[in-house]
Amino acid sequence: MITAQAFSSIQAIDREAWNDCFPDALEDWDYIMAVEKAGIEGFAWRYLTLFEGSTLIAAATAFTTCYRLDTTVQGIGKRFTEKLNRALPGLVQLKLYAIGSPVTEQCSAGTASHVQAAQRPALLARLLTLAQTDAARLGIGLIAVKDVPSHDADWAHSCKAADFQAMPGLPSATLPVPFGSVDGYLGSLGKSTRKDMRRKLRTPGPRVEWRNAIDDVLPEIMRLYEASLARSDLQLERLPATYFTGILQQLGDRAVCVLYWLDDQLVAFNLVLIDEHRLIDKFFGHDLELTRDYNLYFRSWLVNVDYCIRHNIALYECGQAGYASKIRLGCTFQSNTLFFRHRNWLINNALKLVKLFIRPDRHDPALAAAISEY
Length: 374
Known about the structure:
alpha+beta
């Protein structure tokens, strides 16, 4: 007999049993534990589980928050919705229950290693039913499944069977790294990009330091983080200092903060997760006034590519932002889909119209190109 249960803390779930549902995941039980302990303001965590007897057979992360419908809107549209939100906040903000995580790029739902592939669709449907029941108990009408890989037919079928609507999510950028050297990587780029990158490398660059502890520079890191966050239209969450320190402490050698120094001044940092298969770029914060003079973003990019080459890491997972640059830098893109449904039929029908305006590819041509690639 299968039983379904939602928990408010991942500490209620056995670490090994959880990780068995997500084999080889870098963002595993330890990462989720660090996120939970960080206390990200405005978010509460839910962990959806299915047990067969006492054995965990399927699991998913979920969260609740007050969601702004214009989170993916940019440019003129964003300025309009900002004014609208100040005047009538109830029109663009709704309580949200979402399967997935604000600090991972794709929907975190998995099944235990002994579960056969043919069982997965039914188990995902059970998790979705559990999410709807849990949301109703919490008094939340808007339910979503965040960033489902578009090739995941099982999730798509379960969501459509439950009358969820679909819209494009932010695509995930990746760079395969089969190169023998950074020069080999540069040779794979388009002529103008290759020439531009080599010109950038001829100028003096910052000193690079790889760290597993950042307590002594945490105020400067948070200053750079806040400055970078202020320039982003697409950020859903605001990360506290405890997120950065907690990730480094909880994951040990699987998490590193790369620091960029000009003399004694910290001008950029990059939090990355690493294993033998991939390097995941979690956040890059930098001093905008110095970025152009020292090409901080592109230098950090090449530092990460070089690390992958030297350690035989095949994949650089590089986030959901900066699509114009990432197209030039040779990335491929995994398209994601957002599924959603509101229990109130009137609001649900209204959202069918709203989604035409808030689609992320309506406001960023580079993002639209990344979505259309796959």
